[in-house]
Amino acid sequence: MADYKTISAKDLKQKLDSDEEFLLVDVLSEASYESMHIPGAINVDVHQDDFMEKMKEKTDGDKEKEIVVYCASPQCQASPSAAQKLVDAGYENVSDFEGGLSGWKEAGYDLEGSRS
After folding, report:
1. Residue 14 and residue 103: Cα distance in Å, rounded?
2. For residue 33, with 0-12 CB atoms within 10 Å meaning exposed, 13-18 middle and 19 or more buried, which class applies?
3. Are 94 and 83 in contact (CB under 8 A)?
4. What is the residue-wise DSSP string for the chain?
5. How far apart are CA 110 and CA 65, in angstroms?
6. Closest by Cα among 47, 37, 43 to 100
7. Rounded average pLDDT over 22-43
8. pLDDT band at 2, cuts 50/70/90?
9. 4-8 contacts: CB < 8 A, separation 24 or more?
10. pLDDT over 70 (residue 21)
11. What pLDDT band is residue 19 in, cutting at 50, 70 and 90?
12. How far apart, in whole angstroms, are the C-alpha atoms of residue 109 and residue 71?
């Protein structure tokens, strides 16, 4: 069984800057997303019952689409949980940005949202 990969802030920033085709997903609550998120990210709350349904919609059911998930910080378990759910559902190209919002900010990159 495939497992998910992890990605660093630097690699994620390069990916975003290169206009590569991938889905960046903030798996925290909508309120959290609205207050602060990585530019270019969409929000699908991993704690909602319809998480997998929404992810299927966002990927058009393409299990090979590259997906990067993140949450608040390295201590937060929302993105590892989301990554595992995706892998378990058959998605083949899943990465967890373990640093999350705090790691992104520490790396000196911009955030968007009402509190950024």
Report:
1. 15
2. buried
3. yes
4. ----EE--HHHHHHHHHTT---EEEE-S-HHHHHH-B-TT-EE--TTSTTHHHHHHHHTTT-TTS-EEEE-SSTT--HHHHHHHHHHHTT-SSEEEETTHHHHHHHTT---BSTT-
5. 25
6. 37
7. 97
8. low
9. 4/80, 4/83, 4/84, 4/86, 4/87, 4/94, 4/95, 4/96, 5/94, 5/95, 5/96, 6/95, 6/96, 6/97, 6/98, 7/68, 7/95, 7/96, 7/97, 7/98, 8/97, 8/99
10. yes
11. confident
12. 16
pTM of the model: 0.95
- Give the whole-angstrom CA distance, residue 29 versus residue 87: 21
24: exposed, middle or buried (Cβ count in 10 Å: 0-12, 13-18, 19+):
buried
Tell me the average pLDDT across 71-81: 97
Identify the CA nearest to 95 among candidates 104, 83, 103: 83
What does the block give as tokens for 6?
Answer: 């992890």
